[in-house]
Each structure stands twice: as C-alpha cells, then as structure tokens.
Amino acid sequence: MRTALALEKAGFAVPDTLEKLRTCLQAALEVEHLTIPVYLTGMYTIRAGTNTAAFYGIRAVVMEEMLHMTLVANLLNAVGGAPVVDSRVVAEYPARLPFSGESVPSIGLQHFSPAALKTFLRIEQPRSMTPPTAPGGGWTSIGQFYDAVREGLEHLVRTLGHDRVFTGGPERQIGPEDFYNSGGEVFPVEDLAGALLAIETVTEQGEGVHDTIWNSNETFGEERELAHWFRFNEIYTGRSYGPHDRPRDRPSGPLIDVDWDGAHPIHGDSKVADYREYERTSAVYQHAVAFNSRYAVLLRYLDSAFNGHPRHLATAVPTMLELRDRAAQLYRNPHPDPALAARGCFASATFEITDPQFDAADAEVARNLAAASLRAGEPVDLAGLASDSAEAFV
C-alpha cells in the first residue's frame, strides 16, 4: 500500500498547511476504506440462517463506512485535493491503519468470532475510552485522528482565509441524489460549516454523540441508532443496549442470539498465490481471482465518482451485488490446502488487486459508462476515465 507508507514517513500531527491537510484527508479516506474488507469478511463468513442480528448489524456499519469514504472524498475535493482510489490504497492484510500509533494493532481478515469482534471494537474505540495520543506518536482512536483534521482545518481557515482553503469546484461534490444510504446521507461540502458537519457525522457514527451510545442520524431526520462501537459490543456480549445505557455500562437490554459456531472458519492470511498451487484440483483460485477483479472494478467506479463524475457512483451498485455473489461462491468451499481443510478452514476472499487487474477494470468501467451514457443520451469523458487519477493528486 504505497500511499500509506508515504504517509507514515510524514508523521502524525495537526496539519498546518493545505498540502498536509490534503495528505491527512487522503489518509482518512484510506482508514475508512481499509476497515471495509475486515468487516465484510466477518459478515461474509456467517453461515446462512444463523446470526441474523449480527449479520445485519455488521452490514449497517459497512454501509456507513461507504458513506464515510464519500464524505471524506467530498471534503478532500472541497479543499482542492483529488481522492486516490487505486492500487496504492489496497492493503496487504494484516494492515496498519495510516498514522495510527503503536497501541492500535494491525487489522487482519478474520471469520466471525469473538476475536474478530474484539478487532472491530478496537478499530471503533471511542476517544473517551482511549488514552491520549503521545507527543510524536500516532493517533490511538479514529476520533482523535479527525480531531487533528478538524483543528488543522479551522487553523488554516483562520490564517489563510476561507476562500483560499475551499477552492474545489462544486461539480466534484457527491450529493444525496447520487448516493443512497440508510444510515445518514451524503451532502456536498462547500464551506467550513459543511466540512465540520462531515467530520462530526463520521466520528459520531463511529463512537457516539457527546459521549452517548447513539449516532447522529437524527441530524438527517432519521431514527437514531447505535454508534458502531456499541453495535459491535452488542454482538460481542450477546446482549442489546437499553435506551438509558451509557457508554461505559454493560448492555442491559434483551439477549441477542449469537452463535459463534455459525461461521465458516478461514485462514485469514491466505493469498491468491496460495490458491493457485491447487488450481487443478479446486475452483477456489478462479473464484478468488474473479472476486478480486470485481473489487478492482468497484474501486475504479468509486475513483471516477470521487473525481468529478458523481453520477458514476450509482453505476457501482450492480458491482457491489456481484461482489456479494462472488463471495458466496468462495466461502462455501473448503480451503484447497488439504492440511487447512482438515482443520476445518474454508476459502475466503483476499482483497488483493494486481496492476493488470486494475488496468482491466479501467477498460471495463470505461465501456460500461460509455454504454450507460449512450442510453441516457449523455456524452461521457472516456479520456478522463482512462487517465490515472493519481496524476491529479497534489
């Protein structure tokens, strides 16, 4: 993951220049993205007909992480940046989250289990439950990270002036007409007030509003829901929260049916290269390659949508559904390695993407968007789609 490695060398601090702010926001986009395969793996490995509450709880968080990626992309565009969603942001799991401190462990791909939920809880751990960031060290909670982004943004507006900070064109903003999500909604970021609301939405959906267990969905006229950490803690403890429970309370509501045996155990460190060794005796290798090719296409749609083509986000939906179907083909197969299969391990997605897969995804996305535009009677910028968005990232 080349971008993240470059970010680590820069060190973690409140950004005091526009360039550093854009770097931090690119890192924030990567933090949001890197959690999605981890959560999807926990969700995908749940056996059909079991752990219904857990499945939909994790799924809701995944959808909100997609929302967070989009809001961060809007914020990065608003301050004159260009989001990067290509091979440089694809992690090799286990992966470290950009700018995180030593107390934040690497995150790996794990099947639905108490260990996986403990990882989820550490990722979403609220600031109120986390030691302060040590001087010169990385962030220890995602909320602390966004605190630094917010502080840097406000400082730059005070010192440079609002119009020198918010220089991005409104045509690059993704709005609610481009993105549907049942947990909150996307909104354009065009000024400091919108930027602060975006940061507030991301952090409060993760760790709760004002040291409560609830998220900020009421801001959008929706029913309040548990923030991510508390959703995961319900699954981990097997008990739901009551309406008056506080963040440090154990859940006091009804029991939740959690069956830790209702999952396909996986070997989370598996790679496509491991599967290829058994290509003649198992279809797993082909399934894994097909999954990763769909993952590449999804990321290319996101990159296009985040870089001046907001309507392209809607065209990613069929790919999301196909990704789910490809996952089902993978996780129901025993691991092709006989030794791992004997231990009860199943195959799993690796979320690896090679440069040739990204090249093929570029061509496929360009064809699909051209066809969609022809049906809609609209021109499409094929040259823009084929270009490498990294060239525009300053």
From TrEMBL:
Origin superkingdom: Bacteria
Bias type Basic and acidic residues, positions: 242-251
Region (Disordered) location: 241-260
Domain (Iminophenyl-pyruvate dimer synthase): residue spans on this chain: 25-237
Pfam families: Ferritin-like (PF12902)
Protein name per UniProt: Iminophenyl-pyruvate dimer synthase domain-containing protein
UniProt organism field: Kitasatospora griseola
